[in-house]
Amino acid sequence: MKRRSWAEPYKIKMVEPLKMLSKKEREKAIDEAGYNTFLLRSEDVYIDLLTDSGTSAMSDRQWAGLMLGDEAYAGSRNFYHLEETVQTIYGYKHLVPTHQGRAAEHMISKILIKQGDYVPGNMYFTTTKLHQEMAGAKFVDVIIDEAHDPNSEYPFKGDIDLNKLQALIDKVGADKIPYVAMATTVNMAGGQPISLNNLKAVRELTQKYGIDIVHDMTRVAENAYMIQQKEPGYQDKTVAEIVKEINSLTDHATMSAKKDALVNIGGFLATNDQRVFEEARNMVVVYEGLHTYGGLAGRDMEAMAIGIKESVMDEHQKARVGQVQYLGNLLLKQGIPVVKPIGTHGVFLDAKAFYPHLTQDEFPAQTLAAELYIDSGVRAMERGVVSAGRNKETGKHNYPKLELVRLTIPRRVYTQAHMDVVAESVIDVYENAKNARGLKMIYEPKYLRFFQARFEKL
Ligand SMILES: *Cc1c(COP(=O)(O)O)cnc(C)c1O
């Protein structure tokens, strides 16, 4: 077949020069950072794939929007623009802005959870689970088994296992389950989407028992794009239409606008429930700021409103997810062990398969992220035993089945040539995998340890 290429639906107006260190300098930098890529200075990084959070390039429209910031303490016009955008694009009735996603998670957890409750979810996310636990609940993973298998090619590995959910309801009773935590694209499973078919079934089951659904909608538009590409019956629907349909099946939403919504800071809690809205609107004053700014400047809310509209455009998602798939396919072609299928916001390297000679106590994913930085200045993130933390009761490490390194692609930031450089480096590190020796943890913070833990080479 004749090749027809496509490219990004934008051109570049401004550039940010990058510094490149020598290999010797990188070895010194990662040693000083305790072999934790979170502790590197960004100046010492060449291609930064640590996270897609807050790292997107804003459009000229969004930058222009910053100049329209109405920095009134109360009733900023940007709040009303954002509120109207959340209502029309996402379809939720009430909006409480927050400085980022975890502040919304904090509030919804405090409002809905009672001590001793259970919160089932399609796998966990670090901050989400922590806030559920701090509010007194026990998190229960009810994602389908395929999500834990990096080789399963099932296209909707974010789906909820209805039998697991039913079993939990039968065991603890519906009154001990305030809500199901449902994320669109499951970050920890490799950026895997949930299907609408599954979500509809979850809605039906939860409705039967009067259980709410809290939607972590951080990457809802990316999830919608995958539904359009892969779920029968959705090929002719737009991303915007699918986003609305997903949201309509849920009761409340938490949003980290630093992902899908193309801003560097921002988030919100949205709900269709008047009582929850009133509580959150009151609580936000304590933790974030007045309910018409929630820890954000007016200009931030303006950029977010514009970013939300851009995020649900088909062309945007085609280029965004397309770039991630491009990198993933380069690696697949070379036989690099990655989580399959390729997700929407990053490519997840299977560190256990890179380093079969390392045990989880030697932190294979942490090791791989460090080796990649030393090889090329590419910064990635550990998603393995360090991220999984310790069991609250036993104090032992949680040993997740997956030991992953996430190459997360910022939106609209890097070019295809950058992706080629990344792929070439990963291939080199894979070829030298036998020589890696693993790490020892020498400092461990109490909460979300992956951010600040320090290691030394074994
Ligand atoms: C980033 C993220 C969050 C937390 O949002 P912050 O803006 O970082 O506080 C919650 N859920 C998912 C799935 C995320 O990716």
Describe the structure.
The chain is an alpha/beta fold and 458 residues long. It has two domains: 174 residues, Aspartate Aminotransferase, domain 1 (Alpha-Beta Complex), CATH 3.90.1150.10; 252 residues, 3-Layer(aba) Sandwich (Aspartate Aminotransferase, domain 2), CATH 3.40.640.10. 40% of the residues lie in helices and 13% in strands. Strands 2-8-7-6-5 form a five-stranded mixed beta sheet, with helices on both faces. The mean pLDDT is 96. The protein binds pyridoxal-5'-phosphate. The site of pyridoxal-5'-phosphate has 15 residues, from α4 and α5.
Task: Reconstruct the topology from this structure.
Blueprint: H1 23-32, E1 47-48, H2 60-66, H3 77-90, E2 94-98, H4 101-112, E3 118-121, H5 126-134, E4 138-141, H6 162-172, E5 179-183, H7 196-209, E6 212-216, H8 220-230, H9 239-248, E7 252-256, E8 267-271, H10 274-287, H11 298-311, H12 314-333, E9 346-350, H13 351-354, H14 364-376, E10 378-379, E11 381-383, H15 385-388, E12 404-408, H16 416-431, E13 439-443, E14 454-457
Parallel strand pairs: 1-10, 3-4, 5-6, 6-7
Antiparallel strand pairs: 2-8, 7-8, 9-12, 11-12, 13-14
The structure holds pyridoxal-5'-phosphate (PLP).
Pyridoxal-5'-phosphate (PLP) binds at residues 53, 100-102, 125, 127-128, 183, 187, 216, 218, 256, 258-259, 267.
